[in-house]
Structure formats: structure tokens, C-alpha cells
Amino acid sequence: MRQFLVAGNWKMNTQRATAVALATDVARGAASATGVEVLVCPPFPYLEAVAGAIRGSSVRLGAQNASAEKPGAYTGETAIEMLIDCGCASVILGHSERRTLYGETDALVNRKVKAVRTQGLQAILCVGEQLADREAERTEQILDGQMTGSLEGVDGDAVADLVIAYEPVWAIGTGKTASPEQAQAAHAHLRKWLAGRYNPAVADGIRILYGGSVKADNALTLLQQPDIDGALVGGASLSAANFLPIVEAGVQAQGK
Ligand code: PEP
């Protein structure tokens, strides 16, 4: 059985004090969330402060991006070695904001996935279609292209701990959520793709998170879908009062 994962992507939000307070509240609240893995992904400057706040709890630390390069002359970049040094266990890669605002291509995301896996961190690979793609019924084609490009040459042990996040771009930060049926259809398609690219056992073990305006009031129906194994949460992860009920929905949806 795949364990639910609920991850908070804090994006470029919080300051040191608010990050520590939020992490402390999440760690306290998540203590009773038996069986659900909880991950927080603060901005780079607060990784260590948040690592301190969640120490001793079940909450894990993640980063929102990583360089594909080894440490060296890459102004403004953050090496995977540095993330490990700060206590990160996971890294979000290929988020739609990285793709659309910073020009990240599937080829670059692929280099990052490989580098992250080589260093033993968990990659959370984001894929998702734009509104125009969905309206033109090109969702599956777009997802296939992103998966093929981002996972080229990623084989064997490298896929063991991989997490996929399906995030329809039109649902991110917009308040529009994919319906449970739309999300389930995309997740089932991604799992079928994984079974074809790898094998059914690998596909069955890989967690596929849904992301896009997940909130306390829509989380349960989404998480009850057979191929939805958790949530990648943006806006609602910035307050423990909004985030913890999503974690709780994961507890309730277990064993669906
Ligand atoms: C995200 O950015 O990964 C995300 C899902 O954001 P939101 O929950 O705010 O739509």
C-alpha cells in the first residue's frame, strides 16, 4: 500500500520567525497523523531554522528546487550537497513556476532528477498541463511528453523513491481545483505511463500527488480517489490551521 504524502510548498513566503512558528505548529499537529508522511518545503534561507523546528518530529524537510551542477561557479544556485547539509530529504523539481517563469525545460529537469537521485535525495517531479492544453484535449499528450523528457535515462534504483506531482497549471494558486474525476483520470494515466515505461510493480509503488488549490474542504474527496496518493499544497500550507486538516484528510482516506 502506498503511504500518503502531504507536502507543503511554501514558495517565496515566510520570514525566519514565521517559518519557525509555522514549522513548529505543523510538527505538533502532525504528531497525531498516523500513517501520513508530512513534508515542509520552506525557502532556502530558512531550511536550517525549519530543520531545527521540526527536529525530533515526524515531519521531513524538503527544498523547492536544486541545481543540477556540482558545487562551483554558479552564482545564485544551490547545490544538492548544500540541501543535504541543511537536512533536506526531498526536492521539488520542475514546478510549473520554474518551468514558466524561469524557462526550465524537460531536459534541465531531467538533469536535476538524475543529480538528485545520484545524491540519494527524493525527487518530487511536477508535471501538468496548461488550460489551453486541457481545452484542446491535449492533457495526456502533454503529460507523456513531460514524463518522457524528465525521466529519460532514469532507471533502476533511481526510480525507487520517486514521487510524481500532477499539478494542472490552471489550478495552481487560482482557487480552481481539478474535479476528483479529472484528477483521478490524469493520475491513472500517469500510472499507466509508469507501468509502460518501467513495469506494473514500479508503477504501483510510485506515489502520485495532486496539486492545485488543495484546501481543507476539497482534500478528502481528492485523496479518496484510487490513484491519488497525497497532495502538494501551496497556499494552504502557509498556515497550520489550513494545512493540518489536509493532513487529517489523508489520515481519513487511508485504506480507501
Ligand atoms: C503549488 O504551487 O504546488 C500549488 C499546488 O499551489 P496552490 O496549492 O496554491 O494551488
3D structure, described in words:
By secondary structure, the chain is an alpha/beta fold. Helix content is 43%, strand content 14%. It has a single domain (4-253), classed as TIM Barrel, CATH 3.20.20.70. The chain has eleven helices and eight strands. It has an eight-stranded parallel β-barrel with strand order 1-2-3-4-5-6-7-8, surrounded by six helices. The termini are close together. The chain has helices at residues 16-30, 47-54, 80-85, 96-101, 106-118, 131-135, 139-150, 180-197, 200-205, 216-223, 240-253, and strands spanning 5-9, 37-41, 60-63, 90-93, 122-127, 163-166, 207-211, 230-233. Bound molecules: phosphoenolpyruvate. Phosphoenolpyruvate (PEP) binds at residues 9, 167, 172-173, 211-214, 232-236. The site of phosphoenolpyruvate has 13 residues, from strand 8.
N→C terminal distance: 10 Å
Instruction: Let me know the average pLDDT.
Output: 97
**How many strands appear in the DSSP assignment?**
8
Work out the helicity level. Answer: 40-55%
Kindly estimate the percentage of residues that lie in beta strands according to DSSP: 5-15%
User: What is the CATH topology descriptor?
Assistant: TIM Barrel
Order of helices and strands: EHEHEHEHHEHHEHHEHEH
CATH class: Alpha Beta
CATH superfamily (homologous) name:
Aldolase class I
Describe how the helices and strands are arranged:
Elements: E1 5-9, H1 16-30, E2 37-41, H2 47-54, E3 60-63, H3 80-85, E4 90-93, H4 96-101, H5 106-118, E5 122-127, H6 131-135, H7 139-150, E6 163-166, H8 180-197, H9 200-205, E7 207-211, H10 216-223, E8 230-233, H11 240-253
Parallel strand pairs: 1-2, 1-8, 2-3, 3-4, 4-5, 5-6, 6-7, 7-8
The chain binds phosphoenolpyruvate (PEP).
